[in-house]
Specification:
repeat; TPR-like_helical_dom_sf; 4 helices; Ctr9; RNA polymerase II complex binding; elongated; single chain; TPR repeat; mainly alpha
Length: about 80
């Protein structure tokens, strides 16, 4: 998707950015997903689908961060 975006759409097609964000989401790469969606929101601020998906990605990132095991004092 990155190559397609770079070669054919000059990095400005929000639909391809949404596809790229979905691949990051499925690979559980939450920060890359959020960054891609925020870039798409910058290009199309009136697209509420992008805003909703960014919120879901941020929620998944925060829940995965909070579920990491805590280290004990012995480690």
């Amino acid at each position: 998707y990155r190559n397609c975006l770079r070669k054919f759409h000059y990095g400005t097609d929000t639909q391809v950015l949404l596809y790229l964000a979905r691949t990051h989401y499925e690979a559980e790469q939450w920060q890359d997903c959020k960054k891609t969606l925020l870039r798409a929101i910058h290009l199309a601020p009136s697209n509420y689908t992008l805003r909703f998906d960014a919120g879901v990605a941020m929620q998944k990132f925060s829940s995965s961060t909070l579920q990491k095991p805590k280290r004990s004092a012995d480690e």
